[in-house]
Amino acid sequence: MCLLKHSKCIYVLGIALCLLFGIVAIYHEDCINAMSPQTARGREHRQNTEPPAAIAHDQHESPSTDIPMGSPVSSNRLSITSENSTGNDLYKHVSFRSYNEALEKRASPDKDVLLVYADLGVHDMALSFYESSLKKHGIENYLFVTSSSAMCQEFHLINIPCFQFTNNSNSGTGAHYGSKVFKEKMNIRTFMVLHALKESYNLLHSDSDVYYFANPFPVIKELCGSECDVAPLWDYMSHNAGFLYTRNTTMGIAMYEHMNNTACTTTDDDQVALNRAIEHCTKIGLKLVRLPTEQFQSGKLFFDDGNRTFAEDNPCTTCIVAHNNWIVGIAAKEYRFKEMHMWVYDGDEYYSSSDRKYLVYNNTDPSQSNVEALIDAFAIGQLLNRTVVLPKLFCFKKPKCTVKSICTVDDFTTRFKGRYREHSFLTHPMVPRKIKDSVGEVVLIESQSVPKSAKGDLSLVPENKEDGATSAEIVRWLSNRNESVLRFHSLYNAFWKFTDQEANSEFINNVGKVIESKEKCKI
Ligand SMILES: *[C@@H]1O[C@H](CO)[C@@H](O)[C@H](O)[C@H]1NC(C)=O
Ligand SMILES: *[C@@H]1O[C@H](CO)[C@@H](O)[C@H](O)[C@H]1NC(C)=O
Ligand SMILES: *[C@@H]1O[C@H](CO)[C@@H](O)[C@H](O)[C@H]1NC(C)=O
Ligand SMILES: *[C@@H]1O[C@H](CO)[C@@H](O)[C@H](O)[C@H]1NC(C)=O
Ligand SMILES: *[C@@H]1O[C@H](CO)[C@@H](O)[C@H](O)[C@H]1NC(C)=O
Ligand SMILES: *[C@@H]1O[C@H](CO)[C@@H](O)[C@H](O)[C@H]1NC(C)=O
Ligand SMILES: *[C@@H]1O[C@H](CO)[C@@H](O)[C@H](O)[C@H]1NC(C)=O
Ligand SMILES: *[C@@H]1O[C@H](CO)[C@@H](O)[C@H](O)[C@H]1NC(C)=O
């Protein structure tokens, strides 16, 4: 028996050992249920879990990460153009009767398939990913997997292939990081990959908050070759479960089976499960290729160590993918992508509107208050119905910061949604030329805080130079301006108060006091 085929025996024994680890006889019923992909027809209500709000493998983040769930989809958010991909007949299917059919229809001829798990909580992120990372690079062999039927329905309408892996009745509610529901959602990713591996596909598993500079398949396949079992992104100090290529080798499958066991028997998430599985399976022959970090970057490496905050910062010439992790919260990820022009989702004509009007201004003086200038900008924006394009904010005496220095990004973006745009907005390729070209002369509101040296093309002198202009003055001076982008030199003490008392206290309570205090900024 074993002695006859010695090496094979050791191999099999090794796998058994690898699997042995972590096996506990009691499996959660929820877990087992969640593991079986559904067929679209005759689907029974198998489980009552809430939707996975999981997006990224960010276990370094504070465990208090509450993932906000998206609101139900409204049709005017469907700004993604409906196309039949690049027209390759091979990939024309977007809806499927079963998971196996979905895999069969979407995989490339050499059985490579890119799986992206997404739910309503990352609705905009997933659509941005589709545009910026898949469609842009002509990647066809991908499939979105979700647990939200609303999401899949929407994707199908715009011809994006999607399969609903499990049904759940509560799409739209949140799941706390660390909660049972949250973990179950994370685990779906393990189940969907393991199932596909067993069906003999090679899987590139990607989160939707990974930005592709190029199609990663050619490089990964070259690096991994016909020898490697798994090739994960190196996440600074561990392997990342949100971007990894796994081949359908005995060891590749064993590794995921190990993860499946962790998923079903512990409360650890898939990131922990992956690293544990790698550690154990490496001992018995798992061949791993660590994706080179010059090309495949974690959020810490790309954004933090790379000093990348604004679109023009440090273009990365070697990058193939960058993971937007090592940051807390979906809104913060979105904001970071936006400042870097790595976001292209245009829901509600975020970029493409041709009639929205904007105002821009600068922070020119490190000794004056960023915060007060921003409050003035919001007041003027409100009076003139113009969206405030944020300036760079001073921090450590350098104009190099975002609103993160005022308020947490999550709070800021939620509170002031629609009233502002990120600093890099006006140079984004999707903003119409018509807007970019319609920029007015430099307006200078000459309050006492403006240095003598400051020059504007148009100087406006408020009656009260100490405190700044009133709403009446702002409206009189500027409400008839028709340029798309109204440009101010700076806004130190530019605005004093609304003439209307009620409007004034309303503004102070909802904007002024909020921005002034980090505590009040919290939502
Ligand atoms: C996509 O395919 C459908 C059905 O095959 C067809 O009716 C439609 O015109 C195609 N759309 C584009 C943009 O090619
Ligand atoms: C999903 O489950 C709900 C019950 O929670 C059920 O009403 C609905 O029909 C199910 N959807 C499908 C497609 O089976
Ligand atoms: C995951 O593990 C559970 C428990 O051992 C098992 O029932 C299930 O079949 C496994 N899933 C897959 C896809 O192998
Ligand atoms: C991997 O898939 C190929 C078919 O593409 C199949 O021949 C092979 O047996 C699979 N490997 C394993 C370990 O299942
Ligand atoms: C980022 O900035 C720090 C401090 O300013 C500097 O030491 C470092 O070399 C910069 N890194 C890159 C990649 O530019
Ligand atoms: C204010 O601007 C928005 C965005 O462009 C526009 O939809 C709205 O009609 C404007 N409101 C008024 C009162 O002009
Ligand atoms: C802000 O300052 C920068 C650099 O000094 C300058 O290029 C830009 O035109 C200024 N913007 C405005 C709105 O004045
Ligand atoms: C703004 O109005 C002036 C005349 O009042 C006109 O010449 C100019 O073309 C208008 N600009 C825009 C962008 O509508």
TrEMBL record:
Protein's organism: Capitella teleta
Molecular functions per Gene Ontology: glycosyltransferase activity
All copies of domain Nucleotide-diphospho-sugar transferase, residue ranges: 138-337
Domain of life: Eukaryota
Membrane-crossing segments per the record: 9-28
Name of one Pfam family that matches: Nucleotid_trans
Region of interest (Disordered), ranges: 42-73
Keywords, in A-Z order: Membrane, Transmembrane, Transmembrane helix
Annotated protein name in UniProt: Nucleotide-diphospho-sugar transferase domain-containing protein
Stored InterPro entries: Nucl-diP-sugar_transferase (IPR005069), UDP-D-xylose:L-fucose_XylT (IPR052636)
GO cellular component, one term: Golgi apparatus
Record has Glycoprotein as a keyword: no
